[in-house]
Specification:
With about 700 residues, this protein is mainly alpha-helical. Helices cover about 65% and strands about 5% of the residues. Keywords: Cell membrane, Copper, Electron transport, Heme, Iron, Membrane, Metal-binding, Respiratory chain, Translocase, Transmembrane, Transmembrane helix, Transport.
Length: about 700
């Protein structure tokens, strides 16, 4: 049998590599601007499109889906071809995938600063873009499986198992989490409400970390680390255990983001139990990677690429130990909503994802350009400035998290809150935020140096767009020669995909279905009424401005929180919230009981210039709300959409909704006039005041009625 000649497609790898570098620098720069705004709010330059609330989701989407996403496709397209001894299935599909993905990212760059957002973390993009993501993901899947089917290598290496699990799980996550009812071309409401929406969001949010930031990177680790170290992977059996245990356990862990909320206790307990179990497979992968370097540690001293890999794997080990620890209720009660979580996330993002990406770029680019790296000294500088950047970022954020968490829970000997004003804790941790921005600057500087180094590397070499290779054709399956159930499974990609799908669906169905399908799991409260049309419009402005990025709307059952905010939250008060707005970080105080706490004039002045009412506040001015006219042409479609989702607006109410809206708006404007504030009733500020004044009022009424 004669070897067959074919050509690897390096051009698509190069394209994704360049996109990784460009979007990485853009995403990190946006993140740095957002970080600086947390101690210098004027860094939004008085522009509504660059406030923290709007660019924070732009930063997360740019880093996760643009930087990391392009890096995944770069690594998959390079390694898949060589593991399967085959060119990618279709050049056309490869190019559709590349350009489609870049257009999706560009659409995020445009829409998120405009305030077009669902508010679901890591899934903020609106429904037309969600459809585009689905189409491009299917294109990627067809291209990947098409390549697998025409392979010249019978055995599917461990990296490919992770790629297959990533494809199928991300598809399930994206589809389930994107059940939205369109209201207009760029506005939708989540089908789920309140507790149900929260459960789906954090089932998605945690597993986006698991199956976008982790499993494809583990696949790339299994391919690139042995190549870099010139050593075989430490243990094949450990890789089997690592793979199946990881994808089975990970899918259950999402509820640990919702501890002490109104999520049913059994779901919280499941999330905790599986989070603790997650340590074993996570560390199994880290150990398998680090032990691959046995006998090659002398290379680590001299090879900057291996340095990046070792620190990346170490960061993965640290993050995957800390995550389960943070799921313990005692720890979570202190850490949640603080900068401790920010530190934890960035140890994984900067160390694991960032450093592995840098290592792969430094190793891969010279090879496809058939040249040497332009400057090893620059790469060494990048490693050390990047490592310092992580330390200068993470340590101050841990410090800030511990400080704020403890301050918020502290009582005086007389039993009073020692720091009743949330702002006191914010001002105390500003120096840590300054240090964090310095760390981010270091890390970004390293990425810029890498970009220059790799650009010069490309210039001194020449891309081998079609790299010649040869391999024997795939021989027919000899069933008698196959030994071991997993060896047989590895050679059957569809069965492997189905197996992975079943494994991830077990936890999904058990956790989601009871809460989503049994309405009695979310008891209603008689005093909780649907939002008025003006409040609904104000809520949408609140979402547009990204207020939920800084303010939570759920009071946990701690004495420190009920003393500060009021009655702890109940599941029934969120039944009309499409989407839920519980938040995940408190840069400012919780707003769940904000209604009627202050007068309308206070809210007006606070939105115009927060420092007038809260000296030292780091909240930006929202003075454009005072002049922008509220768009009431959407009221009718919004009421209809909410009714479709089960909100009990009366039949035909959409026809008189704007009349009610105008009456309530005029009442607020008249009330403001009594405080010598002249503002027309059709301005956006009126709607957001109406919404803020509604928060928690129904629960207060219910409490009064039950006395």
């Amino acid at each position: 049998m004669q070897p067959e000649k074919f050509y690897y497609d390096n051009k698509i790898v190069r394209n994704f590599g360049i996109a990784t570098i460009v979007w990485g620098i853009i995403g990190m720069t946006v993140g740095l601007i957002a970080a600086i705004q947390l101690f210098k709010p004027g860094m939004n330059m008085g522009n509504q499109y660059t406030t923290f609330g709007r660019i924070r989701p732009l930063h997360t989407n740019a880093v996760i889906f643009a930087f990391v996403g392009n890096a995944i496709f770069m690594g998959v397209y390079y390694s898949l071809q060589r593991l399967l001894k085959a060119r990618m299935f279709s050049n056309f599909l490869s190019n559709v995938h590349f350009w489609g993905w870049q257009l999706i990212i560009l659409s995020a760059v445009i829409t998120l600063p405009l305030g077009l957002t669902t508010s679901h973390e890591y899934a903020e993009l609106e429904w037309p873009i969600d459809i585009a993501i689905t189409i491009i993901w299917v294109v990627f899947g067809i291209n990947m499986f098409g390549t697998i089917f025409k392979r010249r290598e019978r055995h599917l290496y461990v990296a490919i198992w992770f790629y297959i699990a990533t494809f199928v799980t991300i598809a399930v996550l994206h589809i389930v989490n994107s059940f939205e009812l369109p209201v207009s071309a760029f506005k939708s409401y989540m089908v789920y409400a309140g507790v149900q929406d929260a459960l789906v969001q954090w089932w998605y949010g945690h597993n986006a970390v698991a199956f976008f930031l982790t499993t494809p990177y583990l696949g790339m680790m299994y391919y690139f680390l042995p190549k870099m170290a010139n050593r075989p992977i430490y243990s094949y059996k450990l890789s089997i255990l690592h793979f199946w245990a990881l994808i089975f356990i990970y899918i259950w862990a999402g509820p640990h983001h919702l501890l002490y909320t109104t999520l049913p206790g059994w779901a919280q307990s499941l999330g905790i139990a599986f989070s603790i179990m997650l340590i074993a497979p996570s560390w199994g992968g880290m150990i398998n990677g680090l032990l691959t370097l046995r006998g090659a540690w002398d290379k680590v001293r001299d090879d900057v690429v291996l340095k990046f890999m070792v620190v990346g794997l170490t960061a993965y080990g640290m993050a995957t130990f800390e995550g389960p620890m943070l799921s313990l209720k005692q720890v979570n009660g202190l850490a949640h909503f603080t900068d401790w979580i920010v530190a934890h996330v960035h140890v994984g993002a900067l160390g694991w994802n960032g450093f592995l990406t840098f290592a792969i770029l430094y190793w891969l680019i010279p090879r496809i350009y058939k040249t040497n790296l332009y400057s090893k000294k620059m790469a060494g500088f990048h490693f050390w400035i990047g490592t310092l950047g992580i330390l200068f970022y993470a340590i101050p954020m841990y410090w800030a998290g511990f400080t704020q968490g403890l301050m918020l829970k502290e009582f005086t000997p007389e039993g009073m809150l020692k720091y009743p004003n949330f702002l006191e804790t914010t001002l105390r941790i500003i120096p840590m935020h300054v240090m964090r921005s310095i760390g981010g600057t270091f890390y970004l500087l390293g990425a810029i140096v890498m970009a220059y180094n790799l650009a010069r590397t490309m210039m001194q070499g020449q891309l081998v767009a079609n790299e010649a290779a040869e391999s024997l054709p795939l021989e027919p399956v000899n069933a008698a020669a196959e030994s071991g159930w997993h060896r047989r499974l590895e050679r059957r990609p569809i069965q492997l995909m189905v197996g992975a799908l079943i494994v991830i669906l077990v936890g999904t169905v058990i956790e989601l279905m009871p809460t989503l399908t049994i309405s009695s799991n979310v008891p209603t409260i008689a005093s909780v009424k649907p939002y008025t049309p003006l409040e609904l419009q104000g809520r949408d402005i609140y979402i547009r401005e990204g207020c939920s990025n800084c303010h939570s709307q759920t009071v946990r059952p701690f004495r420190s929180e009920t003393e500060r905010y009021g009655e702890y939250s109940k599941a029934g008060e969120f039944v009309y919230d499409h989407p839920f707005l519980w938040g995940s970080k408190r840069t400012g105080p919780d707003l769940a009981r904000e209604g009627q706490k202050y007068g309308n004039a206070w809210h007006y002045n606070h939105m115009m210039d927060p420092r007038l009412m809260s000296p030292g506040s780091i909240m930006p001015n929202y003075d454009w709300l005072l002049t922008q006219t509220l768009d009431t042409t959407t009221t009718r479609s919004k009421i209809n959409a909410m009714r479709t989702l089960g909100v009990p607006y009366a039949a035909g109410y959409e026809n008189r909704a704007n009349a009610d809206l105008n009456k309530q708006a005029q009442d607020i404007a008249d009330n403001l006039a009594k405080d010598k504030i002249k503002v027309k009733s059709d301005k956006e500020i009126i709607a957001i005041i109406a919404y803020l004044q509604r928060l928690g009022v129904d629960i207060k009424a219910n409490k009064t009625a039950n006395k």
